[in-house]
Specification:
single chain, 833 residues, alpha+beta, eight-stranded mixed sheet, six-stranded mixed sheet, 24 helices, 28% helix, globular, Znf_RING/FYVE/PHD, Ubiquitin carboxyl-terminal hydrolase, zinc-finger, protease
């Protein structure tokens, strides 16, 4: 006894009490996905407050010399225990009433379903500190240890803190129409019950317009349920903005929607507005679920297998290495799907999983903040099979059902998600995101973190050749750029079932005009070959500035592959904008093939007898007092962008950097550079002196230099690109790939070579490192999306494992019976053997 207390006193200076701002990792091991519920529990360092599973705590002790750890173990209560506890003084678990986490009325993050045991353990012998050991210590030591234990247990875990910070989905604002809403004196009185839509007689999902008292049905949902849009159509016809959902009115309030503001809102005068039509809020009772309750129900149900099961089939659960599920952390299915696919690629396996021991040995003192460590931890967790085990059944142990439930223990990538999303305005939140955007974002992070050694992103990197031909002079210009994804447009006019679609549209219009519920619309069937043709066919550039004729003229642009990557990602551009710039998703079926031969789309460069456009700068703009070295910018394109609300200088840069190729290209540039820190700064031209305080010779970021050099360019080339683009990395990368011809003429001093070397001794100048090979591919994975836009819905992925398609739906991993290959969003191909 005394020996343990003496050891504890000797290490007292390494035991800290958590202070505000300390990150306490008491839910997840920094090097694995062990938790207090895992076998062996979790050991929390009482100095750094990092958590380690039983498998890795000895490693931390040997590296740091730390001896005192707080050992936390949790044992799941049985359902019967939970029920008994609820009835013996503990309040029953409340249902959430607010779409938020960790705040009053929201989802309860800390579920009361575990029994917890906490004790101090001393290493290397794992001696447990008992109450008697603590009592035998001097008071100052006993108080220090007790305060540290209490502080760790009282502190919010990092994962809990992040969840609370990340998600509060229901913050309603007062409607600007509420205070001065005009209500018609039409004598209309609404009864307290028995409502139905005045157009289609629907008796649920009903909304009363607060201006004229008209009762009509709500919007139709993406799956065909809901109403028939009559309340929305009434607003479009009348402009009356506010409506209240009947059945949600209680003395505490009701659901009010503003069609003009396109959001749920607050109405401070709601009692008065309801009273105008004979409704007394104080006597009303709730009979319909509120919009928040409906949204909560969707969020609670999103992990259910039935949401996306294949044709009602009973799917067979799978377990083992490479078959590990991932917990949904709140709309994190986009991340789960992307990472499942990436760790099917050998480059990512070799980089992060094959060398897991070396990576963990070299991890910094705080591995929770190290990119390589956390990616390796995730990859090993997915591929090892250690966490691919059936989840414990929370029901009574006496259950005799032999039917496999399909749920896995799986892994919860909380530390990984927090690290990769840190600082990003979207990926740091718990809102749904676009899987394609996250894939590119993560590849960019890999590029930045693999400046030396193996870079797994090279598996996806390829060169695109763009050939522009001036139609007046027939001279051509060739440029190359790096890309990671092929984005295929969806030519809706090429649907093979056009007659069926036209007939369905005619029937729908008749139904709407008669007030009848519209029939379900058939899905457009688009041949994959037409999508590929739309990507590769020549594009007409109406306002191309030709250096051959020194004027604007018409040109054609043709896109081809300059190299074929080992792994090819194809995005079907299902998400688009309507005429009103409202995002929408195309409901299409595309016959995506299992094998693909793109050999015919390889670019061949300058063709025999073809003349190139001269490398002459466009004519300068003239002002009364000074000559500005700038190209002529298409004023009409600049004006169109400005009318959309973008800053003038940003619009000028968009037109400049897209070479006057039209509004679509300029708009794409704007959407891709809105987060740039100098988005609204004045246009700075390559080689010119610039904005106030900068010069062409100003220093450039060493970090940005290293990133570009890691892509295969020389330091001089990287420096020129950064100086030409005001030291903005993303723009510099764009610039360097659009000026490859200029860069090839630069003298390269890398490796001791000088300008005096003979021409014959010169090696080709360095360029982007890309792999190349035959353009024949086979499909091995695809990611699918359910919902009306990338900002909502659900993602799952299908991956081919040993000739068997497997569906990964968060924590559930099953053999796929009928993989819906025609409904995918992102498709992943590998080079065919």
């Amino acid at each position: 006894m005394a020996e343990v207390s003496e050891v504890l006193m000797s290490v007292l200076n390494t035991i800290r009490v958590p202070r505000p701002g300390d990150r306490v990792h008491k839910d997840e091991c920094a090097l694995s996905f062990a938790s207090p519920e895992s076998e062996g529990g979790l050991y929390v360092c009482m100095n750094s407050f990092l958590g380690f599973g039983s498998q890795y705590v000895d490693r931390h002790h040997k590296r740091t010399g730390q001896r005192a750890y707080l050992h936390i173990t949790r044992t799941r209560k049985t359902q019967k225990e939970d029920e008994n506890n609820s009835g013996s003084g503990d309040p029953p678990k409340k249902k959430p009433t607010r779409l938020a986490i960790g705040i009053e009325g929201g989802f309860d993050v800390e579920q009361e379903q575990y029994e917890e045991e906490v004790k101090v353990v001393l290493f290397p012998d794992r001696q447990e500190v008992t109450a008697d050991d603590l009592n035998s210590m001097p008071e100052v030591g006993r108080e220090r240890v007790s305060l540290s234990m209490a502080g760790v247990m009282a502190a919010d875990s990092v994962s809990h803190t992040l969840q609370v910070q990340q998600w509060d989905g229901e913050v309603r604002q007062e409607s600007r129409h509420a205070a001065d809403l005009k209500q018609l004196d039409n004598g209309l009185k609404i009864p307290p019950s028995g409502w139905k839509c005045e157009v289609c007689d629907l008796q649920e999902n009903l909304w009363m317009n607060l201006t004229d008292g008209k009762v009509m049905c709500g919007r139709r949902y993406f799956d065909g349920s809901g109403g028939n849009n009559h309340a929305l159509q009434h607003f479009q016809q009348t402009g009356y903005p506010l409506a209240v959902k009947l059945g949600t009115i209680t003395p505490d309030g009701a659901d009010v929607y503003s069609y003009d503001e396109d959001d749920m809102v607050l109405d401070a005068k709601l009692p008065e507005h309801l009273s105008h039509f004979g409704i007394n809020m104080m006597t009303m009772e709730k009979t319909e679920r509120t919009m928040t309750e409906l949204e909560i129900a969707v969020n609670q149900r999103v992990g259910e297998w039935e949401v996306i099961q294949e044709s009602g089939a009973t799917l067979r659960p799978l377990w083992g290495p490479g078959l590990t599920g991932m917990k949904n952390l709140g709309n994190s299915c986009y991340l789960n799907s992307v990472m499942q696919v990436l760790f099917t690629v050998p480059d990512f396996q070799n980089k992060y999983v094959s060398s897991i021991d070396k990576i963990l040995d070299e991890a910094p003192s705080d591995p929770s903040q190290d990119f390589k460590t956390q990616v390796a931890k995730l990859g090993y967790g997915l591929l090892s099979g250690e966490y691919s085990k059936p989840a414990p059944d929370p029901s009574d142990e006496s259950s005799t059902s032999s039917e496999p439930r399909g749920d896995q223990v799986g892994i919860a990538p909380q530390m990984f998600k927090a690290l990769v999303g840190r600082g990003h305005p979207e990926f740091s939140t718990n809102r749904q995101q676009d899987a394609q955007e996250f894939l590119l974002y993560f590849i960019n992070m890999v590029e930045r973190n693999c400046r030396s050694g193996m870079n797994p992103s090279e598996a996806f990197r390829f060169l695109v050749e763009e050939r522009i031909v001036c139609q007046q002079s027939q001279k051509a210009k060739y440029t190359q750029r790096v890309d990671y994804i092929v984005q295929l447009p969806v030519p809706m006019d090429q649907a093979t079932n056009t007659e069926e679609l036209q007939e369905a549209e005619r029937v729908r219009e008749e139904a709407e005009s008669s007030g009848a519920p519209p029939p379900p619309m058939p899905r457009a069937c688009i041949p994959f070959s037409t999508c590929l043709a739309a990507w590769s066919e020549p594009e007409t550039l109406a306002d191309f500035w030709s250096s051959a004729v020194q004027a604007k003229t018409t040109a054609t642009k043709t896109t081809r592959f300059a190299s074929f990557p080992d792994h090819l990602v194809i995005q079907i551009k299902k998400f688009t904008f309507g005429l009103d710039w409202v995002p929408k998703k195309l409901d299409v079926s595309i016959d995506v093939p299992d094998t693909l031969d793109l050999s015919a789309l390889r670019g061949i460069g300058q063709q025999p007898g073809e003349e190139l456009l001269p490398e002459v700068a466009p004519p300068p703009l003239m002002t009364p007092d000074v000559e500005v070295k700038a190209p002529v910018l298409d004023d009409s394109t600049v004006s169109q962008l400005c009318e959309m609300g973008f800053p003038l200088e940003a619009c000028r840069k968009a037109v400049y950097y897209t070479g006057n190729t039209g509004i679509d290209a300029a708009m794409n540039w704007v959407m891709g550079h809105m987060e740039d820190p100098d988005f609204s700064a004045p246009l700075v031209l390559p080689g010119c002196s610039s904005a106030p305080g900068t010069t062409p010779t100003e220093s450039v970021s060493e970090e940005h230099l290293a990133t570009i050099v890691s892509m295969g360019f020389s330091r001089e080339q990287a420096t020129k690109a950064l100086r030409a683009t005001s030291n903005v990395l993303e723009r510099a990368v764009d610039w360097i790939f659009s000026h490859l011809d200029d860069l090839e003429s630069m003298e390269v001093s890398e490796g001791g070579r000088s300008a005096g070397d003979s021409e014959g001794s010169r090696e080709p100048p360095p360029g982007p490192r890309v792999r190349d090979g035959p353009g024949k591919y086979e499909l091995f994975a695809f990611i699918s999306h359910m919902g009306t836009s990338t900002m909502c819905g659900h993602y799952v992925c299908h991956i081919k494992k040993d000739q068997q398609w497997v569906i990964f739906n968060d924590q559930k991993v099953c053999a796929s019976e009928k993989p819906p290959k025609d409904l995918g969003y992102l498709y992943f191909y590998r080079r065919a053997d």
